[in-house]
């Protein structure tokens, strides 16, 4: 990872460069810093150059672009009182408490370009003005070491050696100054609300390669937009090898698109890529002017991405390290992964993917990339300052981008990956897992109670029950019994299934004992629920309503709510309002009925129907299952033990 920016600390401004290195790359640390020094010198050489010449002042152009976009951003964001703008204002006030008026109006205070000041800043990017902080696993390479008094962390401090300085000065990379940004927003006008514009997303284009959703923003009145497309191809889930190839390819695309960060950032846009089960998702947001054109440019770049073998090797090594580090994860993470593997049926299991990743080759990724380009289809959503015709044009642009690469003999039409939650029905299951790790002194207990298919009535009852149960669970098992620092009970939704999850990570007790205490708590809580007054129920319902009633704070939050329904395929646009309506009807009898049917153990040592429990046992704890489930024998080291039975 690589990022460059400036920071202010106690009124002292400094520029920072952050980069992450592989273990093998640590020896090149000063070479990378040297590239920064060399590039600063190249930029400095352009300062004050005559405009409209090959040596034109690049910094001046960037300065003017930044001044303009920051002013636009200030005019259209700071007044909205968004969370981000409030946090930024608080930070400025902390550093400059005596200049409150300027802090509020900072977006309009960007001054005129001053070449001499910029030259002075760039002149300071030299080894003699630098502090280099290195975090390295190889402590011996930095001897002699000192020890920090409070945490006991070992560290060393030394001046640059002649070798360090020479390495930095020897950087000889070929540098390219930024080109003019073709995506800077100009048109800030608001599109009129058209006839037939609804309050929910609408499908405006359905083609074999593209399904286009659109909604016009009639709430925030900002010249902004957000666009997201999920690209999917059946080949991605056709085998474990193709699934792993898709993961590496998506990481490579994300890295290659980062090269376009300058043109995106200087136009105040934001973008990101994400690999989900349904495919590769590309999202762009910002001012509406030029955003669709930028989106198509990034889409073309993603489809044309041709990661080299060196990039593949680096990313493949990263995935292999992640697999190797799985046994070193904390117990709750391991338990959650085991539960996910058992609960969600996927075309490719996590275990099969780990095996396939071990033997993945560059040729595998090349085969996937070729098949992906030739079979990819897209589901796109655009929300904000655009009318239906512009959304249709965007969808057609996406289709053309895909058609240029599509294999006419392939099966088209966007479709989601087949995933489903396993219906436990009348079956309860226990998974006992042990991953040897001498450093891990915590065991984990994770209980997943299936409540049923998501509906407004069931969700409303579960929300109120969670409001009552969760704080009591934490107070009893974390604060009073001190079982561990990670203790939680919460409502959960997976695909279209509602559930309740109890999680405890403990070094004090093995999972069997933790499970016994959870059962005991549930029995006690059941008695409390029976004695609950109608006034307390009404207060809890009112508290739940207060959390759900606030509308989206900004366009991006509204977009996020819509896109979650589109990606899930549920299309329940009135989910929140339906839930609010259902909350009004929740009574104590509903809470007691749901709790007794789905959460309350029938005996202190028996499962409830619709329960999947996971015990992850650390090296210091014993586990035989006898304390909570009859008939479950000894666990096997490193392998899950799965038992199931019906009531």
What would your notes on this structure say?
It contains 20 helices and 18 strands. The chain has helices spanning about 30-45, 60-75, 85-95, 100-105, 115-125, 160-170, 240-255, 260-265, 290-305, 310-325, 330-345, 350-360, 360-375, 390-405, 455-480, 510-530, 535-550, 555-570, 575-585, 590-600; strands at about 1-10, 10-20, 145, 155, 200-205, 210-215, 225-230, 270-275, 280-285, 345, 375-385, 420, 425-435, 445-455, 485-495, 495-505, 610-615, 640-645. A 6-stranded mixed β-sheet has the order 5-6-11-7-9-8, with helices on both faces. Helix 1 (about 30-45) runs antiparallel to helix 5 (about 115-125), helix 9 packs parallel to helix 14 (about 390-405) and helix 15 (about 455-480) crosses helix 20 (about 590-600). The longest helix is centred in the C-terminal third of the chain and has 25 residues, at about 455-480. Residues about 625-645 have low confidence and may be disordered.
